[in-house]
Each structure stands twice: as C-alpha cells, then as structure tokens.
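Board work, copied verbatim: ATP-binding cassette domain-containing protein
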Amino acid sequence: MLHLDSLTYGYDSARPVLDIAAFHLPIGQHALLLGPSGSGKSTLLHLLAGILAPQAGRLEVAGTSLPSLTPRQRDSWRGRAIGLLPQQLALVPSLNVLDNVLLPAYASDQRPDPARAASLLGQLGLADKLDAYPYALSGGQRQRAAIARAVVMRPQLILADEPTANLDDDACATVVHLLARQAAQAGASLVIASHDARVLAALPNAAVLRLPRARGAA
Ligand SMILES: Nc1ncnc2c1ncn2[C@@H]1O[C@H](COP(=O)(O)OP(=O)(O)OP(=O)(O)O)[C@@H](O)[C@H]1O
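↓ predict structure ↓
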C-alpha cells in the first residue's frame, strides 16, 4: 500500500523537515505516524495525499508513484484514491451535512451517491442530521460527519490528521475505532498522524512510523 524510501521534503531547501530512510505498509494494514509537534506529521500526510511533492526519494501509494505525476494528475488521483480527515475538519458552513459528505464527488467530477452518504451518516449516528448545517452540530457530530466524508468515495487510503486532539479517553477510543471500522468496510488502509499515545493503545496492531523531534526544536 505504501512504499517510502529515502524520502526527503523541506519547505525551504536548506532545511529538510522530513528525511525517511524506509517505511513500507502492506495493503489493508493501518499505520500511525507518531512524533512531537513540528516533527512533520502533517507534512507527511500531505505528501501521501499528493498535495505536496517530495524533493527526492520513492513515494508510492496504492500502486501509484506520486513523484512521476503532474500536479493536475495528482489532484485527479487524490479524488479517486484518498479520503482525507483534516485536523480542522473543514466542513463547509453553507452546506448541510449530506452535501458536505457529497463534496468529494463534486470536487472530483464523480457521480454523487446520496444513498450511500445517507447510509454512512446513519451508521455514524447522524441519520437525523442530514439536513442540519455544521453550526448546529456538536463537535463530536461534526467529526463523525467528516469521517463519513473521508470514506464516502471508497478510497484506497484514509489519512486522518490528529483526529483525537481535545477528546477525552472514551471519545478518543470511539473515534479511532470508528475510523478503523469505516476503513475496513471501505476496504481501505488507514494512516493516522498523532502525538497522542492513546491512539496507539486504541490501534495496537498498527505499524508505527516515529518521526524524530525537529532539529533545533526545544
Ligand atoms: N506551509 C509551510 N511553510 C513553511 N513551513 C511549514 C509549512 N507547514 C509546516 N511548516 C513547518 O514544517 C515543520 C513541520 O510541520 P508539520 O505541521 O508537518 O508538523 P506536525 O508534526 O504535524 O506538527 P503538529 O503536531 O504541531 O501539528 C514545522 O517546523 C512547521 O513550522
């Protein structure tokens, strides 16, 4: 599913943020990117999603070598292959919950499937919130809507950025298990970036990639 070798990335070419010798993840397995703040977890998720392009090294995701794609090809590939659960959930305030979940289809020119979106929202306990707007949801409900949006297109890989930040222990375990279950149902692998050790306890079989503290960081 993932093949990373000699992968480097820096926002400024003089100072690499990431330098990964090797990391390989078999299909269907889950991975945790662990590391302190500033170690490059979000940067790596953006590389895996094809939002950023590496400066050097091998980066293969679900059989596609990302460095060989143009930015436009990466955008189209992302729409088909990747489900993203960003740190700031990024629900669109002017769209109701159902339309927020259908957004990845509109964004990638694919046919929206409202029945599937509604069914996912039902599984996530939001059956009565399809017409609600994000402002009228609790934080946990917004997060579940964002999980539905991340899996609705049956992506090969789901990328979740700090999904448990600010959650208590019970809610933390619930969110990790929801993500893992939805990934399994969609036939997807799951990569969670986190500095929260509780995520490891909730997903004990995941492969772990630990990113070192950034050089020069306190
Ligand atoms: N767009 C950007 N331009 C320049 N530098 C950036 C940019 N985004 C991140 N950085 C820098 O890259 C480094 C890694 O940031 P990143 O957000 O990937 O870390 P992180 O491990 O996800 O941190 P956190 O746990 O705090 O979210 C940091 O030093 C950050 O300041």
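The two ends are 34 Å apart (CA to CA).
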